[in-house]
Amino acid sequence: MRVITAIGFAAETGAQSYIATPLTKAITKPTLEAAVKICGLSNTKETYFHHIHKDPKTMKDFNTFMSGNRSTRQHWIDWFPVESEIISGSHEGKDEVLLVDVGGGKGHDLETFLEKFPRFKGRLVLQDLPGIIDNLKGLNEAIQAIGHDFFNPQPVKGARAYYIHFVPHDWPDEKCRDILRNLMTAMVPGYSKILLNESVLPDRGCPPHFAASDINMMSIMAGRVRTEGQWRELLQSIDLQIIRIWPSTDSGDQEAVIEAMLKS
Fold first, then answer.
1. Is 51 noted as a catalytic residue in this protein?
2. Tell me, what's the pLDDT at 154?
3. Which of 64, 90, 144, 152 is positioned for an S-S bond with 34, CB 3.0–4.6 A?
4. Please, what is the Cα angle at 206 between 212 and 167, to 5 degrees?
5. Which long-range contacts (C-beta less than 8 Å, at least 24 apart) are formed by 208-216?
């Protein structure tokens, strides 16, 4: 309790007498409680995600955290110009793929996309590991769900955009190159795009929350939360061209969409 009170997770009212603080109450909320649980895994030689996918209880905690975390932030379509950058110029036809959500979990991002753009032309494809896709319930019929490991070649060829939300920060640079190269083999030069919806940290003066998040990703999965300079270096190393970085309009948020294409 001396340590807990020293860092503000509780307060002392006397010798061995304590009361809750706002931080105490915050970590009892389902989203943050789930976050604590999913950060304490051990005793396995498997990768983090292969390990948690085998444990329904841990997977439930992971989805609780991800859903709650996203619900408090702007959605990427609220600041990224979808109509001008994705829908405009896309190939028309019901069999053409407009957007592939790579590692998209239960499809929350595509469901939100459908709500805002109900009359777009093209197909929406959700991809995640087969264990996730096989247990989906209630997914909108307009979304095609495919079991896929993004460390394997991308099976959906020639989509207008391949969207990845908070995936690369889970992996070191070399693994990210593997993920991106698998997408690049499916892209049409001058047409297909990769949309990386990620944190983009400033090269100096990083806010405390995001600095701590970087340490968290490193300790759990050998990943990293990258600065703008690190993103540019990573994509340039595999001949991806950054068209533009679109930052969130939420004050203080470091989330952005990195729009990239094959180098011409």
1. no
2. 98
3. 64
4. 60
5. 210/254, 213/169, 216/39
Largest Cα–Cα distance in the chain? Answer: 72
CB atoms within 10 A of CB 84: 9
Look up tokens 């793929």; give the residue: 97
Name the catalytic one among 51, 148, 169, 209.
169
- Contact predicate 255/248, CB 8 Å: yes
The rounded percent of the chain whose pLDDT value lies above 70 is 97
In Å, what is the CA distance from 32 to each residue of 4, 39, 57, 61, 81?
17, 11, 16, 10, 31
For residue 127, give both structure tokens.
């991809």
Residue 176 per-residue DSSP state: H
What DSSP assignment string belongs to 197-221? EEE-B-SSS--HHHHHHHHHHHHHH
Strand partners, 162: 100, 194
| Burial environment of residue 156 by CB neighbours within 10 A (0 to 12, 13 to 18, 19 or more) | middle
Q: What whole-number distance in Å separates Cα of residue 90 and Cα of residue 198?
A: 24
Note the pLDDT of residue 72: 67
Which has the closest alpha carbon to 150: 96, 221, 100, 224?
A: 100
- Specify the amino acid at residue 37: K
What pTM did the predictor assign? 0.85
d(CA 199, CA 206): 11
pLDDT (tens digit per residue) in 3-51: 999 999 999 999 999 999 999 998 888 888 888 888 766 677 777 877 7
Fold entry, domain 76-262: Rossmann fold (3.40.50)
- Which token pair is 227? 């600065």
The domain segmentation of the chain, as residue ranges, is: 2-71, 76-262
